[in-house]
Design a protein that fits this description.
Low-confidence stretches: 252-262
Strand order of the largest sheet: 3-6-5-4-7
Shape: elongated
Number of strands: 14
Helix content: 10-25%
Structural class: mainly beta
Largest sheet: 5 strands, antiparallel
Number of helices: 1
Radius of gyration: 41 Å
Length: 262
């Protein structure tokens, strides 16, 4: 019977290597592959950005109102101070912005949220209603007026950019005091005192009145007149107290009856 004797495993001359060269190379290859992947992803992202430059998308729904270039035209990059026209102009028309220059005397009374009624010259008597949405809070040194903006819904598309018209802003809530056309009041000293002529028994009678707010169109009469008084609204200085007059109901331009007589 033969027996074997195990021999101890001796390290090679110079000792066992601390790291195998193949493992280190594999790790380096992995890191290199990851770096190449990051570079490729960055190039892909840059290519996507450049590809997105080929599509121009407006941040809102609107209508192209001006086009400077057409299919096949060469478009070069604009530089600072360059007068190159834009590719196209897009206008939003579902919500219009009405610009108003409010005169100095009415500036203190304008507030955000004030109701506004817009009449456009080319659209006849149709009314468009909105509210004051912005006030510049400063007056122009050129005309002493303040810029006010009204956002006006335009679901029907009747309103177009560049239209002209007039705006009536309700600066204060409706008053429960009597009011007459501003030309009916004379000798108005600006501090409340004034006068007006009323028709009684076919004669013009002077009445001293106390005037409230006067916007140039309508003046509040806080005292001195009664609701049933017939007021001369077109006084031109040719009437004296006691003059014989013939009262005639006044009408507005659209045929509606107005308070007062002329």
């Amino acid at each position: 019977m033969r027996t074997s004797r195990s021999r101890p495993c001796r390290p090679p001359r110079g000792g066992w290597p601390k790291r195998w060269p193949g493992v280190e190379k594999a790790k380096a290859d992995v890191q290199g592959a990851r770096a190449n992947l990051c570079v490729a992803e960055a190039k892909q992202a840059a290519a996507q950005i450049f590809e997105e430059y080929t599509r121009l998308t407006a941040p809102f729904d609107g209508t192209v109102t001006e086009r400077s270039y057409h299919d096949g035209d060469f478009i070069r990059a604009a530089e600072s101070g360059d007068a190159t026209p834009p590719i196209w102009m897009i206008t939003r028309n579902d919500l219009m912005r009405v610009i108003i220059q409010v005169p100095d005397r009415d500036v203190p009374y304008v507030d955000r949220g004030d109701p506004a009624v817009v009449h456009v010259d080319s659209l006849g008597a149709e009314e468009f209603r909105g509210i004051v949405t912005r006030c510049s809070t400063m007056q122009s040194s050129f005309n002493r007026a303040m810029r006010v903006e009204v956002d006006l819904p335009n679901p029907s598309g009747q309103l177009h950019d560049g239209m002209y018209g007039n705006v009536m802003i309700q600066l204060e809530p409706p008053s429960d005091v009597l009011a007459v056309p501003s030309p009916a009041v004379f000798e108005n000293n600006g501090h409340g005192k004034g006068a007006a002529y009323v028709v009684r028994d076919g004669k013009a009678r002077r009445a001293d009145v106390w005037v409230g707010h006067d916007n140039g169109l309508v003046a509040e009469i806080r005292s001195g007149l009664r609701e049933a008084d017939d007021v001369v609204i077109s006084y031109s200085g040719s009437i004296d107290d006691g003059s014989d007059v013939e009262a005639q109901a006044a009408t507005s331009n659209n045929g509606e009856r107005k308070a007062g007589h002329e």
